[in-house]
Design brief:
Rossmann fold, 29% helix, binds S-adenosylmethionine, eight-stranded mixed sheet, 10 helices
């Protein structure tokens, strides 16, 4: 059974909000009663994008991040049986291996399509799904670990949304708990002059072409993905992300009452020196006393 904490469709969000305010009014309304995050235009855009890609997601990203390593890493911070909140749980690509390792995982997700895939992969209901916008959420409880893997934080497409998300992370973290955030180093993207186009094979069924353009002034990436699947008409989906440097994560953490305790260049605790452009960065925070 999926709990729903509120997420709007793109049409609803358009009615509530405008592109110019980035959905901030709708998000503020959603958070005003402290209970749900109704989301705004940004959350609705990402949900529609994820709905379009849900059917191919696991084939496009079979091993990024290295899924077994995430669980091993969390075991350095928490015991088996600990309560984990995963933001943007998607199809359960990360959450299901964590459940195999004994963690109790709640997964917040705005996309119905992603949650339908998760449900199909999890007939025993080992993951507790929550449908809604993570930036405004208030689940009324705290977790041993709050996990934001695979650039989930960058799905909040504006600074105010990222601040709201970091506050949401902080209010769901136990006083002796940990926050684990995985992001990429965006240095190469930031100076990219032309759209970068990548092709991802989708088994024997076809391919996905992804085009990424960058707006360096706002640190936004515009993603356009087109699916070419055997027997289907081509299908496109678009979203916006906001990339950020690891040092900005520290600022967001400080704003939300979290302090950095460790940073690595991957889930195997590789040393982080900041020089690995586009490589993933794993940051660990704890609540300030
Ligand atoms: C990059 S994917 C990662 C999915 C999953 N963690 C994994 O690694 O396979 C980001 C996920 O976050 C979800 N998402 C994006 N913005 C969201 C929001 N505001 N609230 C809830 N989920 C969101 C997307 O629908 C998508 O499933």
């Amino acid at each position: 059974m999926t709990e729903t904490i509120g997420v709007e469709t793109v049409d609803d969000a358009m009615a509530d909000s405008t592109l110019a305010d980035g959905g901030a009014d709708a998000m503020a309304d959603g958070g005003a009663d402290g209970a749900v995050g109704a989301g705004g235009f940004g959350a609705a855009i990402t949900a529609a994008y994820s709905d379009a890609l849900a059917e191919v997601y696991d084939e496009v990203y079979p091993s990024t991040p290295d899924l077994a390593d995430v669980g091993e890493f969390l075991l350095t911070l928490a015991r088996p049986g600990a309560d984990v909140l995963e933001l943007g749980v998607g199809t359960g690509r990360v959450a299901l291996p964590l459940a195999d390792q004994g963690f109790h995982v709640h997964g917040v997700e705005s996309s119905e399509g992603m949650l339908a895939r998760l449900a199909a992969k999890d007939p025993q209901g080992r993951i507790t799904p929550v449908r809604g916008d993570f930036a405004g959420m208030d689940l009324g409880r705290r977790f041993d670990v709050v996990l934001a893997p695979f650039n989930v934080l960058c799905c909040a497409m504006a600074v105010d949304e990222q601040i709201a998300l970091m506050h949401a992370i902080a209010r769901h973290t136990a006083s002796d708990g940990h926050v684990v955030i995985e992001t990429f180093d965006p240095s190469d993207y930031h100076v990219q002059k032309k759209n970068e186009v990548t092709t991802y094979p989708i088994g024997a069924r076809g391919a996905m072409i992804e085009s990424v353009g960058v707006l360096p002034a706002s640190q936004n990436m515009m993603l356009q993905n087109t699916l070419f699947l055997d027997g289907d008409a081509p299908k496109s989906a678009t979203t916006v992300m906001r990339y950020l440097w690891p040092s900005e994560l520290d600022l967001l953490g400080a704003i939300a009452g979290l302090e950095l305790t460790a940073r690595y260049a991957g889930w195997r605790e590789q040393p982080f020196d900041g020089g690995d452009s586009r490589k993933m960065c794993v940051s660990v925070f704890r609540p300030l006393a």
